[in-house]
TrEMBL record, chain B:
GO terms assigned for molecular function: ABC-type transporter activity
Chain positions covered by the region annotation Disordered: 1-26
Taxonomy of the source species: Archaea, Methanobacteriati, Methanobacteriota, Stenosarchaea group, Halobacteria
Compositional bias per record (Low complexity), positions renumbered to this chain: 16-26
Compartments in which it is found: Membrane
Protein name in the entry: ABC transporter
Pfam families: ABC2_membrane (PF01061)
Biased composition (Acidic residues): 1-10
Biological source species: Natrialba hulunbeirensis JCM 10989
Annotated TM spans: 50-71, 83-104, 125-153, 159-180, 192-212, 250-272
């Protein structure tokens, strides 16, 4: 999002269609700057036409919708000693589609997932998976979910095939059936050749694919993916994304955690931004984006970043800009960080405001269009190149939110 | 080819995903055997781990037979008849520690999380691992007995007596292992677990009737030997191998085994569920 005066390089870059999606290309082509009109359109789109509709589903999974809930969390708390890993979370995840839990390391994402997968007992609050309580009806929950943990949940000493046969047997397949299922999965995940090798010899991408294959030996109704692409190169990451989309197309609900803005943006139908054990923003990517720029924002007399944001916000016409109070130097709106589709929650004088950072980072041409990453100069990269680290994570940036 | 295998095919993927009805849940026995199979696969892929069940028993048997035989029983041959059942019990009891160590290793890996999220009979994870260990114990027992016979061990109870003794040993070791599985969840590292286990096992094995007749000991030590479960095990095994076992001798070992499982089985499973 470039809220500064657009440079010639910006104009050139933004006018290139970033995607084959016809719904988005007009925006790319026509807009040199993101003006108020587009922001409003983005807001409308965020409400009316979610990504889920683009995928051919008819239900808009909002919390108050009648659609069945895959996950229902109320007042969930988990403390480890002094650490408040999860500090009172309420969350409703509709069945079907991908739900993203976005946040920096240590935000509590994994703890939430581990509680939902019956690996951890909550200290307080309730969590239900398809109506079954995770702490009292663990077996019922385990029958419907599957977990791919942050670290490969496969046996490194065994071969890929043995891992899959083992799980198939444990899930009730006959000997022959288990072998057949293992072959089928190895084929589908491009691991047939590697199937006879010990997992410890696998590359990160292969291991992750095997891990996901192991999670769908029996297709789960709800799949937990804990940072499925962390540490993967772009090619492997795209493969994992394809796998996830294929699963969802088949009716599995996916709860995905990630630290990457672009990943949540690319995959998720709804996103909850989590930090320090609390959810600080929730909605469809479009809704999150639409919330950007509203509220009260103070310009920072010491840093350029905030000023750019306020410029942007003023242009959107929904923001009163107050002068005076500084957000503090080094506050979260430093250039180089981009919005979670705009979801940056800031506190100002006790009031929560949303702002959107400027400079290089993600650029969102429209409510739900595929975002692109602008890295300054002529560097555009749809997927995020991961080279400079600017677009990588919300870490630090969300941290500073609370300072 | 940077990453070896080809990209996954999305169409094939779709097929693999959709074409998978959920089979019915496996029985407790089937699940346990499957986990036992996993333990065997691990032996197959990491045969080095058999070091402890091969080298140690041989070393112990040779060492103690020739070191103490002459002094304690007049001749190595006579000593071997008494010592072999004891050494056998001692080595196997010692290698039960590795059950806990392996489990402790496992917990650190993600694969344990996967097992815990699968809707199987949950104790099967542990029971299966113990079944796999039973194979290791059998290997160790076979080695000790074959070597013993080569050195001049002549059990009066014959093959049946020896097999019965080994069977009893396996039952006892399986039961004893539950202590280590429980500890495996409590201790943070395999090293600390090893330390604690040794602390328990050294007195249990050495302060017993394995090496010497307890009547030569001071009375307080003799009293400990008399209640030491390992002593009971060794007495019963000697009896079975030499054809003099009484139902009482065997019965008390079986009773001890049941007691161990009854206490440490549920404790292990409690820790298994509570484990973070």
């Amino acid at each position: 999002m470039t809220d500064r005066q657009p440079s010639p390089a910006d104009r050139t870059s933004r006018s290139q269609p970033g995607t084959a999606d016809p719904q988005e290309s007009d925006v790319h082509a026509s807009s040199a700057t993101l003006d108020e009109r587009q922001w409003k359109r983005g807001q409308d789109r965020g409400r009316g036409r979610g990504r889920e509709q683009e995928r051919g589903q008819t239900t808009e999974p909002t919390a108050d919708d009648a659609a069945p809930l895959a996950i229902e969390i109320a007042g969930l708390v988990k403390h480890f000693g002094e650490t408040k890993a999860v500090d009172g979370i309420d969350l409703q995840v509709p069945a079907g589609g991908i739900y993203g839990l976005l946040g920096p390391n240590g935000a509590g994402k994994t703890t939430v997932i581990r509680m939902l997968a019956t690996l951890l007992q909550p200290d307080a609050g309730t969590a239900r998976v398809f109506g079954d309580d995770v702490s009292t009806e663990g077996n019922a929950v385990r029958r419907r979910v599957s977990l791919t943990g942050q670290f490969a949940s496969v046996d490194e000493d065994l071969t890929g095939r043995e891992n899959l046969v083992l799980l198939a047997r444990l899930l009730g397949y006959s000997r022959a059936g288990a072998r057949e299922r293992a072959s089928e999965l190895l084929d589908a995940f491009g691991l047939t050749e590697a199937g006879t090798r010990q997992v410890k010899t696998y590359s990160g991408g292969m291991r992750r694919r095997l891990d996901i294959a192991a999670s769908i030996v029996v297709t789960p109704e709800l799949l937990f993916l804990d940072e499925p692409t962390t540490g993967l190169d772009p090619r492997n990451r795209n493969q994992v994304w394809d796998i996830i989309r294929a699963l969802v197309a088949n009716g599995t609900t996916v709860l995905l955690t990630t630290q990457y803005l672009d990943e949540a943006d690319q995959l998720a139908d709804r996103i909850a931004v989590i930090d320090e054990g609390r959810i600080i923003a929730e909605g469809t990517p479009g809704e999150l984006k639409a919330s950007v720029g509203s509220g009260v924002l103070s310009p920072d007399p010491t840093g350029g970043g905030t000023r750019r944001v306020t410029t942007r916000a003023r242009r959107a016409g929904r923001t009163r800009v107050r002068s005076g109070g500084a957000l503090g130097s080094g506050y979260g709106l430093r250039s180089g960080y981009a919005g979670v589709r705009g979801a940056v929650a800031l506190e100002y004088r006790g009031e929560r405001v949303h702002a959107r950072p400027a400079e290089s980072g993600r650029v969102f041409p429209d409510g739900d269009g595929p975002a692109r990453t602008y890295r300054g100069g002529n560097c555009w990269d749809r997927w995020g190149c991961r080279g400079c680290g600017n677009c990588r994570s919300t870490r630090g940036w969300l941290r500073r939110r609370s300072q | 080819m940077s990453d070896g295998p080809p990209d996954p095919d999305v169409d094939q993927l779709q097929l693999a995903v959709s074409d998978s009805p959920r089979p019915s849940r496996p029985s407790a026995v089937s699940a346990s055997l499957t986990f036992g199979w996993r333990a065997l696969l691990k032996i197959k892929h990491v045969p080095e781990q058999l070091f402890d069940v091969t080298v140690f028993p041989i070393m112990f048997l040779l060492l103690f037979t020739y070191l103490f035989g002459g002094a304690l029983a007049g001749s190595t041959d006579a000593y071997l008849q008494e010592l072999l059942p004891g050494i056998l019990a001692m080595t196997v009891v010692f290698i039960t520690i590795y059950t806990g160590v392996t489990l402790n290793d496992d917990i650190d890996e993600g694969v344990f999380d996967r097992f815990r999220t699968i809707p199987v009979w949950q104790p099967s994870v542990i029971v299966g691992a113990l079944l796999g260990d039973a194979v290791r114990y059998t290997i160790a027992s076979t080695l000790v007995i074959v070597l013993g016979v080569a050195l001049g061990f002549r059990p009066a109870g014959g093959l049946v007596g020896v097999l019965a003794a080994v069977a009893l040993l396996l039952v006892f070791s399986f039961s004893l292992s539950w202590i280590w599985t429980a500890l495996g969840f409590v201790m943070r590292t395999p090293e600390s677990l090893m330390g604690v286990s040794m602390l328990i096992l050294f007195p249990l094995t050495f302060v017993s009737n394995v090496f010497v007749d307890p009547r030569t000991m001071p009375s307080w030590l003799e009293a400990f030997v008399a209640i030491n479960p390992v002593s009971h095990l060794v007495t019963a095994m000697r009896g079975l191998m030499h054809g003099t076992a009484t139902a009482g001798e065997v019965g008390i070992v079986l009773l001890l085994s049941v007691a161990l499982v009854a206490v440490f089985g549920p404790l292990t499973m409690y820790l298994f569920r509570a484990q973070q």
